[in-house]
Amino acid sequence: MANLQIDAIRMSAGGNRHEHITHVFGPAFGTKIRFDAVSDIFYNRSTYFTWGNSSGGQTPVGRVATNQAVLSQADYLRTHGNGQWTDNLLALPRR
Fold this sequence. Notes:
mainly beta; three-stranded antiparallel sheet
């Protein structure tokens, strides 16, 4: 299973929350729509991370879902470090 870095995001027009991320970008995969990255996590095909947590290391990206047992178009991505949901994805450059 690949561990892939996300280094930029694209948001829907007027959006500013995690639910509004439409695409993620990374050096190993180029561009992915949000659902493809969420699906990768759900099916354990890949994991994702961002750089730059408080200790300078990787912060894992997780899937936020109302039902963890079911994959849904409403699922979205968010970083999860030190046992808490964080906003590292929102701090990334926009494309």
